[in-house]
Each structure stands twice: as C-alpha cells, then as structure tokens.
Amino acid sequence: QVLPVESGGGLVQPGESLRLSCTASGSDFANNWLAWYRQVPGKERELVVSISSLGFINYADSVKGRFTISRDNAKNTVYLQMNSLKPADTAVYYCRSQNIRAGLDVWGQGTQVTVAS
Questions:
Q1: Taking 80 as the threshold, does the pLDDT of residue 1 lie above it?
Q2: Residue 97: which of 12, 23, 40, 46 has the closest Cα?
C-alpha cells in the first residue's frame, strides 16, 4: 500500500490561513472515509475533521467555523482549508484514508503547521 502524501503546511502568523492537501493513490478513493488529525509533542493525536464517502462531515469543536474539509475524488485528494489560525492550531497534521471493508487504513507522514508571531 502506498501512503498518502500531505502538503501545504508552513509558518504563518495568527489570523492567517493555510490550505493543506492530501493525495492518495488507489482506484477506490471515492469510497473511502477521510480525515485530518493533528498532534503536538507529548499529546495524543486528535481528530480534527472527517468526511465520509457520502459527504457527511464532522468537525471538532475547536475548529468549527474556521476549518473546512473537502474532497476531490477525481484527483484522489482531500483538502483542509484553515482560516483564522491560532497558536493553539500549531501541530503536525496527518491525513487518514480508511476503508475497513477493503482492508485499508493508511496515514500520511504529516505536514507541520506553525502559527506564531
């Protein structure tokens, strides 16, 4: 299995925006449950947002109204638009692509997002 690849992280100031991308190989991407997680050193990895194959979306309370997930099945890509970024959003962001029925559960290597003045 080929791992998904994240991109788009970087260093920004509070209040600015970033868009993360995650691209995965495979022929069944449209049927996968996709999610973005984040993790800071010494803390548990937390679920930020998920989107199902039918388009149902669930956001963590901490990012509601600021982050937006979307998927482009034709490009095998899931995006995370992050607006009004706060220092508390600083973390390594990981994408996950899962299809339990197909025996698939893969994670990207992560991309660093740093929000600081």
A1: no
A2: 23
Measuring CA to CA, which residue among 43, 48, 59 is closest to residue 93? 48
Residues 6+ apart with CB under 8 A from 80: 19, 20, 22, 36, 48, 49, 67, 68, 69, 93
The DSSP H or E segment spanning 84 is: none
> Which amino acid appears at position 41 of this protein?
P
Note whether 74 and 23 are within 8 A (CB). Answer: no
Would the pLDDT of 98 be above 80? yes
12-32 pLDDT per residue, tens: 999 999 999 999 987 789 999
Mean pLDDT to the nearest integer, 76-105: 96
